[in-house]
Write a structure and sequence with these properties.
alpha+beta; Beta-Lactamase; 3 domains; elongated; six-stranded antiparallel beta sheet; Heat Shock Protein 90; five-stranded mixed beta sheet; 406 residues
Amino acid sequence: MDDSAEEISRDVALVGRIESVPTLLRVLCEITGMGFAAVARVTDGTWIACSVRDEISFGLLPGGQLDVNTTLCKEVRFSRTPVVIDQASTDSRYCDHITPRTYGIESYVSVPIVLSDGSYFGNLCAIDPRPAKVSEPRIVAMFHHFATLIAVELENARRQYLVQAALLGERAASELREQLIAILGYDLRTPISLIALNSQRLLAKAQDPAAVARIAGDIHAGVKQVSTLIDHALDFARGRLGCAIHVKPALVERMDEALFSVVTEIQTGFPGREIECQFDISRPVQVDRFRVLQLVANLLSNALVHGAPDSPVQLKATTTADSLVLQVSNQGPPIPHGSLDKVFAPFWRSGTSAQREGLGLGLHICAQIVQAHQGRLGVSSSADAGTVFTATFPQAAAGPANALLQ
């Protein structure tokens, strides 16, 4: 066993799931007359209470910890033999021992809990500030039997935990497979079909320059859509595999120019729609340029798809003393209040829009990008103010060093 917080929490929970343990501890206290009994997880470095019966206000709860060096359980773990004390103050072996003196106890029992493979889990122990006749063979045998029973039940609980974890892992893998199949079966097939169709049209109208230019634009937009879908799918898959989006922040001198380039590209896919820009970027910013532009493209596309078609989408970018703030807003039906906490979840789509665009991963990827920059991404939505996404990227406070870069 290791002493990681995860392992300790798991073992405490597993013992807590064994229904017989509280009864066993109650029986021990009733038969011995002792007021405190516990199942403890014991290693070389830790003593953790997993289940407790406390009738003497010792003050220890499940998950509570004692300094293992102040307990006799460490000696039991080393020797794998029980320690039994009827009255510590008159016992030549333990009258000056640190454990009775530290905790003010007279009677004490601790027996090892050893699993079938020989590994040491911990101790079944009991204490009381009063003397008790606990060295009788029948009492010690009872502790041994109960420790063996707890070991068996603990192994059963561990096996059940592993089976459940495996089932959950398989279920998650199955869901991911279904999601990726859906991506390949619908979302990627649609733009690829449009590209193929437009390629045929382009060949048929090769003598009409205007038609060729128009169809070529449609093909370009389709290719861009496929590229975006693949990027989103890969980012999502990396996240599900535990590989968070990686960013490489670097100094970007003219962020406004980079943002204008994204706006121009996005508008080619939404002819007739207007994007209003308002930039007040007074200094260079430290961000991953590619990822921030990806975020802006996702937010703009989302606003154009779901916003009112007769109202412009607004992009604002400002620098403050310690932040770069990007804001994308649109008019149109507001996101229901109960859905605001779901918009950044993967595969979420607004119930207010009849359009099925992309994978429903764009906003999720946006949240991951901002998180990778240690920033904040929020959303507000109302009928009056419209829907507003605000991304804040922390920056070093402006000062003389930054001023030299302007």
